[in-house]
């Protein structure tokens, strides 16, 4: 164990990276799933240990190959990215538990091993983005996660999945290009790609126009990857037409990792004083965030496909996270990170529950779900738990993060912003109620046979995610402590 522990930052990425080609070579679905699940479970265990170490012993710096930065590649772990690593790997592990039955239903026979290969490769990319201390490596891992995501979405059972994947590819490529141009400009004016080294050199050149251009390119590129309004156009179709397991995983993790990178670059690389003092980033983020909160919820209300409804809901929830970042305060950063985690839990639970319904009736349209709540009571319970968390109801995880967001706004006496937060949250009541009404209060379609619950391999992970929404609404010690430490580090400019 003493031999393994010092290398956990590297193993966090290396284990799933090695597992990806092994899944492809496995050829059989069961073997590929076993490899993917074991790799994801190992990544989760590593993330949990790293989170404990950073919480109690401070940040960790790992030099790849023994080469000291800035000459070598550095993996840096603190409370902020350890929290993200825990979210991404944990969600991936639970979703993989859910996948065998779902994949056999939704993925063409003979391609299951390819699915697990792409899934674990996407996990590798997301973990790498969070843990690397090198700006160019952020781009490399960003592309690994993106390319595998395109393939995963294209595996959806409907032909529209191909169109959705292509749309995401175009938008994602534009976002990655913007980010790469920004990183290239930073390298041109500083001569380094190490994030900690960049942090020391940027204050000396804050008046230069290339730095302003780099900041703009990086911010826009990350905003597109995070689906911040109005750069969200790829998201609804991507979530709606992807396989159920992919929708659950991506909705819970992909945009959150991009938002984390935005937090890290804004507060620690460029500095809050530069981004929010010398530049008007406060309004650049605040206005689209508020629009997203309402536009996303309004769009969700009028959707007939529940996956699209939840996709537009994600646009609104990303608005809340961006709003918290725009406050540029310690309380705001903590609220943003809390909502990243809690939104990941609620969306993973809801998309998994929809996957259970799709497994039985082959549809996620609201009119086809009439009366299913009484025939699938456990699935309905998961939807209610996830829906209440989405609303921000007390005793749920969603309430905690929205409460912290409201407190962050009140700290700056922004009463009008609190009113907007509450008003937009009320809109969520409308589309969540539409789903509950269809499932429980409407009569089943004439001629439809009695529908049973999905297999336990799908139902149990769904209920676990639903229970997590309640648990982290009651016991907030872990999430509040980790995000509190993370907020302090980010506001202090720790890299």
Structure write-up:
The protein has one domain. The model has no long low-confidence stretch (mean pLDDT 87). The chain is mostly helical and 495 residues long. 77% of the residues lie in helices and 2% in strands. The radius of gyration is 21 Å and the shape is globular.
Side by side, the strands of the main sheet go: 1-2
Helical proportion, percent range: over 70%
What is the H/E order? HHEEHHHHHHHHHHHHHHHHH
Binned strand content: under 5%
Number of domains: 1
Label the structural class: mainly alpha
Shape: globular
Largest sheet: 2 strands, antiparallel
Query: If helices are DSSP runs of H or I spanning 4 or more residues, what is the number of helices?
Result: 19
Instruction: Please tell me how large the radius of gyration is.
Output: 21 Å
Q: Termini separation (Å)?
A: 28 Å
List the uncertain runs.
Answer: none
- E-strand count: 2
| Overall pLDDT confidence | 87
Any descriptors?
single chain; 495 residues; mainly alpha; two-stranded antiparallel sheet; 19 helices
Give me the secondary-structure topology.
Blueprint: H1 8-26, H2 29-57, E1 60-63, E2 74-77, H3 79-106, H4 112-131, H5 135-154, H6 160-190, H7 195-201, H8 209-225, H9 235-241, H10 244-278, H11 281-301, H12 306-326, H13 330-361, H14 372-375, H15 377-391, H16 397-411, H17 415-441, H18 456-474, H19 477-491
Antiparallel strand pairs: 1-2
Helix pairs in contact: 1-2, 1-4, 2-3, 2-4, 3-4, 3-10, 3-13, 3-18, 3-19, 4-5, 4-10, 5-6, 5-10, 6-8, 6-9, 7-10, 8-10, 9-10, 9-12, 10-12, 10-13, 11-12, 11-17, 12-13, 12-17, 13-15, 13-16, 13-18, 13-19, 15-17, 15-18, 16-17, 16-18
């Amino acid at each position: 164990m003493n031999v393994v522990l010092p290398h956990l930052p590297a193993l966090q990425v290396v284990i799933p990276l090695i597992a990806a080609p092994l899944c492809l070579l496995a050829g059989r679905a069961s073997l590929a799933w076993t490899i993917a699940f074991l790799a994801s479970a190992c990544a989760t265990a590593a993330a949990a240990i790293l989170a404990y170490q950073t919480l109690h012993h401070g940040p960790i710096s790992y030099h790849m190959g023994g080469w000291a930065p800035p000459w070598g590649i550095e993996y840096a772990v603190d409370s902020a990215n350890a929290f993200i690593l825990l979210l991404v790997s944990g969600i991936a592990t639970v979703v993989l538990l859910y996948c065998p039955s779902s994949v056999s239903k939704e993925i063409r026979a003979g391609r299951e091993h390819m699915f697990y290969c792409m899934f674990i490769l996407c996990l590798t990319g997301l973990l790498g983005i969070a843990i690397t201390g090198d700006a160019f490596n952020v781009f490399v891992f960003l592309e690994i996660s993106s390319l595998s995501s395109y393939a995963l979405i294209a595996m959806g059972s409907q032909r529209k999945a191909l169109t959705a994947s292509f749309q995401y590819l175009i938008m994602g490529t534009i976002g990655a290009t913007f980010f790469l141009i920004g990183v290239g400009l930073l390298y041109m004016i500083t001569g380094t790609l190490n994030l900690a080294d960049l942090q020391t050199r940027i204050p000396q050149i804050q008046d230069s126009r290339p730095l302003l251009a780099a900041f703009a390119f990086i911010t826009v590129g990350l905003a597109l990857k995070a689906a911040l309004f109005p750069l969200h156009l790829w998201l609804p179709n991507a979530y709606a037409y992807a396989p159920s397991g992919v929708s659950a995983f991506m909705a819970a993790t992909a945009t959150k990792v991009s938002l984390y990178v935005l937090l890290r670059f804004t507060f620690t690389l460029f500095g809050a004083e530069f981004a929010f003092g010398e530049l008007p980033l406060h309004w650049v983020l605040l206005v689209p965030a508020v629009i997203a909160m309402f536009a996303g919820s309004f769009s969700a209300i009028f959707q007939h496909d529940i996956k699209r409804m939840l996709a537009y809901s994600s646009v609104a929830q990303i608005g809340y996270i961006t709003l918290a970042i725009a406050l540029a305060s310690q309380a705001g950063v903590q609220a943003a990170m809390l909502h990243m985690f809690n939104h990941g839990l609620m969306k993973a639970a809801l998309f998994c529950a929809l996957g259970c319904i799709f497994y039985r009736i082959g549809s996620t349209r609201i009119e086809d779900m009439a009366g299913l709540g009484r025939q699938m009571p456990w699935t309905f319970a998961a939807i209610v738990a996830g829906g209440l968390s989405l609303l921000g109801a007390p005793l749920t995880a969603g309430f905690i993060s929205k409460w912290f967001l409201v407190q962050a706004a009140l700290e700056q006496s922004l009463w009008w912003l609190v009113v907007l937060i509450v008003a937009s949250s009320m809109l969520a009541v409308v589309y969540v109620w539409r789903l509950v009404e269809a499932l429980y209060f409407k009569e089943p379609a004439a001629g439809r046979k009695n529908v049973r619950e999905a297999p336990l391999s799908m139902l149990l992970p769904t209920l676990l995610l639903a229970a997590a929404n309640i648990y982290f609404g009651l016991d907030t010690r872990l999430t509040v402590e980790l995000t509190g430490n993370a907020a302090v580090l980010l506001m202090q400019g720790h890299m």
